Amino acid sequence: MKKFFILFLSCLFCASTAGAWGLLDVMVSDRGNPYIYKKSFLYYVLTTKNPKVRVCVSAEGTNPDPVRQKIVRDYFVQSTQEAFDDLLSFIRTQLGEQAPVQAAASGKRKKKAKKQPAPAPEFARKAEFADIVAALPRRIELQVVNPNGEDCNKEMKGKYDLRIKSLGNFKYGSIAQQFNHTRGTAGIIKGLFDKDASIWVLALPGNDDYSAYQLAKEEAHKKGKPFIWGSVMDYSMERVARHEIAHFFGLADQYSDQKNMHEVRSLLRTEPSSVVFGGLPSVMAESETFTCDDLEGFINAIDFIWGMEGKTSPRVQNGWKSLCGKPYLYLQGIPVKDSADLAKVQEYLRSWKQAAKEQYRVVQLGQNWRAYLEKVRKMAEEHSESLYTKRQQMRGGLDKAGLALSAESQYLEQKVAKITAIIEQQIEPAEAASRAGKITAQQLNQLEQDLSQYRGQYTPDSPVLDAKGLLTAKPYDDDFSSVTYPCLVCGKPVGKENGFLNRDVKIDGKVRPYHVHTSCAAQSSAYYSKLDKHYRHKGTRRTVPTWADLTQTQGDNPLLAQLAQRVASGKKTPSVALDFSKRENAVSPRHSTPTVAQTRPMATPKNGKSAPVVSAPKRPVVKKGPAAATSKPAESSVPKAKPVVDKAAASGAPKAKPVSVKKAVPAAPKATCVVCRQKMADGTFYTDSVGRAVHKHSLCAYRFFKRFHKTDDASLSRYSDYYFFSMPNDVVQAKADMQKLGLTFADIRRYRASEEASAEAFKKSLETDKAAKAQARAKAEKCRVFQRVMPADVQAFEKKNKAALARMAQKEKNNRSLSKHETLLKRHYEQLKANLALTKECQN
């Protein structure tokens, strides 16, 4: 028996040493993003002093009784808070910090003091891990934001950091199944396991048996009765919570059916998978409590983050020996076998960090373009819905505002297709190469240079409705046809917006197609005789108006104030830039010599009519013959010169031909402003080292400066606080650029305030327009289906039921009840009047 007991203890000891650890692969890298750890819960804990986590709890899938759901929610929060407390206390205690000794309870009677356990011996390597103890908080406080069970997806949306939800009420088939699975999930990266990119997610198993047990226990306590209850079929919520909280600190599962462990930053690099996924002494496997292997995993997860952040502590740079007796060094989350292996790991880390920069550039590029695509797609859907409503309201064809909306909708649709093609053809191949580690900085620079050709229209820094493409956008062909046909009935032009093509008529066995207005369709059969000889089904092309043509006379559009010069000159190509988002999005003018009409200031025309173009006065045409001698010379303000006698003419010699003298043409401008695209004369602009020219001491100069330097009050104060040798490089560069651009701190503040005011005004105009559209949609929905009632219908009803209505009025005056027939008649009368009011409203 003694031998058997010794053999049992030796087997147990051998099994206990077969532990392992591993970091979650999604914390190391996700879809090519090596900096995904910045969204992890552990990174938040390491970078936040005294973290307080706002929690929203829900108990979906459990008993719908509000009292029992409250019990489940409290159970979730209590278990999670205890798991956080146990983990932090475990790490601190194991790394040399003694647990605080609780003070003895005070009372009138002196009780025998309970003997305190002897303090543990001093941890010999305490200084090696002192930075971890200093960085970790003593407590992570959970603050519940929905104590009354408010909906986390509605009322509480955006008001919490951690979502704790229920996986539903599980029914287990056996006790073995009950204790052999954790039944929980953890979303440790914000936005990775939930559509909301601002929260972490923790899912725990609900248990209706537990809530029923607690409810019955509380009820018995209130009534003062003894409480007797059988065993509760629970699944050790403490172990489930500890396991999931260990995920939040970066550890991966060690179940054979869960493969979420990183292959390099784990013991998979040095141990067979049978050991890593079969070890018992770990909370990530089947342990009830935290173990030494879990401690090593936590330290390696922290070292991985600090190594990526560039921390230079000796342990992070040189590695540390295993605390659990394993024959390894650990360097930034990677196990190392010997000195030769250490050199390989150090080279791996150098190449990893170098490649991480290029990978992150590709990830950011893809994220920015896809986020911009979603913005464009969302606005395209809103415009499509508004256009559908507009078409329903105006079935005979859209007005100017409707056609402008159609042009915007078609342009947004084309823009979505274009951006999608750019992502698929240029960005996605780069992302695939980045994930495979086959992309270089030169290739990335070339990709960014190739994408710069779309700047101002398709790049993420462009407005959704950009001036570059919107000015020339045209409506859908269904809203304004480029080809019209004569109407069979009235002979006027028919387009897709107000008519249709008919091919149902045959004359002498031959199909005779014709176009007809929708309003004339009922009379078309009376005009079939014209199809054989008189009607010619021939299309006529017409000019489709652009968005600029459709909106140039709409005085209520604040965005079109900059089009005044273009409207006055009547040109289709804009000569100024439209700024839809208060950013620099300039439209290049045509390169032409400015004329007198172009350079003179133009007043905005009234009533939407174009102002006349003022040209230079023409010289009077002098006719040959006697009549020319009697014509009066044109008046001029130039003083007259003395007459000169031509001796050659007097002597009869032939006159020399007059020499034509060309007027001096002003010198062409030397450069084009990179911001507003206007020509600039010498001395009025600054050119940087790469050849970009910009107006000096102007709004253009401010916008150019803002591309490279911050312009908020804190940054401006920082620029002005430094002097001479104490100035950092960025302050030196900012001051030098200000001097070259002719800007002062007062100029920057003035231009910034102007742009912020313009942006706010534009935002308010958009909100006003959105509210008006919403009101129009509501009215359209209200008037979509209604019973048409005219005043004559109400008068006829009143005349027909005059006696009954008078009798009903008399009864109501005397507070007498109406009969059943009278009640129905009154209801019919009220409904008739309500329909009359609705008819008047919808007609207006």
What topology does this entry show?
Elements: H1 2-16, E1 22-24, H2 25-28, H3 41-47, E2 52-57, H4 66-94, H5 130-135, E3 141-144, E4 162-169, H6 175-179, E5 185-187, E6 200-206, H7 208-223, H8 237-248, E7 261-266, H9 273-276, H10 292-308, H11 314-318, E8 320-321, E9 329-331, E10 334-336, H12 339-393, H13 400-435, H14 441-451, H15 467-470, E11 483-486, E12 493-494, E13 499-502, E14 506-507, E15 510-511, E16 514-517, E17 540-541, H16 547-551, H17 564-569, H18 596-599, H19 626-630, H20 647-650, E18 671-672, E19 679-680, E20 685-687, E21 693-695, H21 699-708, H22 713-721, H23 729-741, H24 745-782, H25 791-800, H26 802-813, H27 820-843
Parallel strand pairs: 2-3, 2-4, 4-6
Antiparallel strand pairs: 1-7, 5-6, 8-9, 9-10, 11-12, 11-17, 13-16, 14-15, 18-19, 20-21
